């Protein structure tokens, strides 16, 4: 990557005002003040809606922001960004929330966007930008300097980033960095003993990271960028082709996979595409076939594990063997391990007491070859839920309750580990705990985790026939440091419903009047059916029409 950047294109302000956005598409330029209030929570589903994620190369440059909403309008059309000569995108808080799809920054890059300025970024989205070579910053003074015509040194985009991420950004992306790095065979370090725990108390996630550290990294402290050995790496059918494409471009074909029997390819998101009205109506099935070809070719060419579509037999319903993140918990991951995948709900498996997190296609491609995945040693927020939940209140209600807290709504939990504990959590089944950890994606966190206990052991025996023995180190140490501790009286949580559009639009059911209650019940019933993928039971697959793949 060049040592400095200069603005030689236009600045696109993702304003809340649709007229402002439409005027920019028509060729008018605005100052930051003229653009008005910027949109918060611009999701990856708005940057690249599911219906355009049917290719995994530079053709994505036709589509950035075609799903972007300003008010009730979608003012950005196909090819508008590329043809408009935009180089910088500017937005508000929590930019890139939602799924871990690397299609979004790849579409922006392919359309000419080289820098994104926002008040805050979702972790996976920003990491994906780092990996493919888009610069990001939350420092709006950098934007002012560029607008004034300055050459801004690359160092301005490295402030606040860990040393490893700085190296990757300077290299122009992860795979460019990886080709010249040393990748020894992963091996686990010894578990800390009691004296070590007393001298330097750690959270459970910090202990798992330390055990899985790259041998060249002597230790890791909060905020450090690290490579850790991944026990399990997986992709699903939306992204397997992209992962393989990026891997082959960097490492050649065939690529030298590390431990292919611990790589899993899931055919789940696109299984029912032929029954999806938008996919059929809009002629998208050839694109779906393109994605499926990339997925099945990888599964066929390499000795990896694969979960596919159910056999199409008379009288049977179509579907898949199961949803990727649910099957990881049901069949593969164990307490204390590391799992990473192309699904933003990979933290689902944290219910077993492991470190599980979503990653982009570049990260997964790199992990397939090296056995390592990159992360930052995270801070942790402890969610302590005391007492017993009321009858009829579930883990989903707990998450909707958390989403209403100012500390969460303000973006204060972005990139954090949610460590759940307390009597109410200990009383939950593993299926319920999986809802808590799964929906960390909606909470904006890095991952979720519940310390393994006898319920975990019983789950592994009953569901998987595994006789597992808990080890003494598999708990957070007394005195471990937390960013914050949120204490909740379980009896204060009521049944919750989320109004349409976002799980953050939750409202306690008793606050709804009769008319609204009936409407909300109907909406919530449909939403809960759609979110059945959060259950650890093996489920039929949907066509992937949401932004939470």
Write a short abstract of this structure.
The chain has 549 residues and is α/β, with parallel strands linked by helices. Among the domains are: 4-178, Alpha-Beta Barrel (Aconitase, domain 4), CATH 3.20.19; 379-534, Aconitase, domain 3 (2-Layer Sandwich).
What does this structure look like?
Helix content is 34%, strand content 15%. It is of the alpha/beta class and 549 residues long. Among the domains are: 4-178, Alpha-Beta Barrel (Aconitase, domain 4), CATH 3.20.19.10; 379-534, Aconitase, domain 3. It has a 5-stranded parallel sheet, with helices on both faces. Helix 6 (123-132) links the parallel strand 4 (115-118) and strand 5. Helix 12 packs across helix 16. The longest helix is centred in the middle third of the chain and has 17 residues, at 285-301. The radius of gyration is 23 Å and the shape is globular. The model is unreliable at 527-549 (pLDDT under 50).
């Amino acid at each position: 990557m060049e040592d400095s950047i200069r603005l030689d294109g236009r600045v696109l302000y993702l304003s809340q005002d649709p007229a402002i956005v439409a005027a920019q598409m028509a060729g008018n330029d605005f100052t930051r003040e003229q653009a008005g209030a910027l949109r918060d929570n611009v999701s990856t589903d708005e940057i690249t809606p599911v219906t355009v994620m049917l290719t995994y190369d530079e053709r994505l440059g036709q589509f950035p922001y075609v799903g972007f909403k300003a008010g009730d309008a979608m003012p950005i059309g196909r090819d508008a960004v590329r043809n408009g000569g935009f180089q910088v995108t500017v937005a508000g808080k929590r930019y890139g929330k939602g799924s871990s799809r690397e299609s979004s920054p790849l579409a922006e890059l392919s359309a000419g966007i080289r820098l994104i300025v926002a008040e805050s970024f979702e972790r996976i989205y920003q990491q994906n930008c780092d990996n493919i070579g888009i610069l990001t910053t939350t420092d709006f003074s950098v934007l002012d300097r560029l607008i004034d015509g300055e050459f801004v040194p690359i160092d301005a985009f490295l402030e606040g980033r860990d040393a490893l991420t700085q190296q990757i950004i300077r290299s122009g992306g992860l795979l460019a960095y990886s080709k010249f790095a040393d990748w020894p065979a992963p091996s686990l370090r010894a578990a800390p003993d009691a004296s070590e725990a007393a001298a330097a108390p750690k959270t459970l996630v910090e202990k798992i990271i330390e055990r899985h550290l790259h041998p060249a990294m002597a230790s890791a402290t909060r905020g450090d960028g690290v490579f850790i050995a991944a026990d399990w790496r997986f992709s699903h059918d939306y992204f397997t082709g992209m992962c393989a494409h990026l891997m082959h471009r960097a490492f050649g074909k065939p690529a030298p996979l590390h431990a292919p029997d611990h790589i899993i390819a899931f055919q789940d998101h696109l299984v029912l595409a032929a029954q999806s009205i938008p996919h059929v109506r809009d002629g998208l099935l050839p694109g779906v076939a393109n994605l499926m070809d990339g997925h099945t070719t990888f599964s066929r060419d390499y000795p990896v594990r694969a979960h596919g579509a159910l056999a199409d037999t008379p009288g049977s319903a179509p579907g898949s063997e199961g949803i990727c993140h649910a099957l990881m918990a049901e069949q593969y991951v164990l307490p204390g391990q590391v799992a990473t995948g192309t699904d933003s709900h990979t933290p689902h498996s944290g219910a077993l007491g492991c470190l599980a997190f979503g990653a982009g296609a570049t990260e997964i491609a790199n992990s397939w070859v090296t056995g390592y995945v990159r992360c930052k040693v995270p801070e942790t927020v402890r969610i302590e839920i005391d007492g017993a939940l009321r009858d009829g209140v579930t883990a989903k209600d707990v998450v909707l309750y958390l989403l209403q807290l100012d500390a969460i709504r303000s973006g204060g939990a972005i990139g954090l580990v949610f460590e759940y504990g307390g009597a109410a959590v200990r009383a939950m089944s593993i299926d319920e705990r999986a809802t808590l950890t799964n929906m960390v994606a909606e909470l904006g966190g890095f991952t979720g985790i519940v310390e393994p206990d006898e319920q975990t052991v019983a789950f592994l025996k009953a569901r998987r026939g595994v006789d597992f023995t808990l080890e003494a180190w598999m708990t957070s140490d007394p005195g471990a440091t937390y960013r914050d501790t949120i204490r909740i009286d379980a009896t204060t949580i009521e049944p919750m419903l989320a109004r349409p559009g976002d799980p953050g639009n939750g409202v306690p059911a008793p606050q709804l009047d009769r008319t609204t209650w009936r409407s909300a019940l109907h909406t919530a019933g449909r939403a809960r059916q759609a979110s059945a993928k959060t259950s650890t039971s093996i489920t039929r697959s949907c066509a992937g029409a949401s932004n939470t793949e």
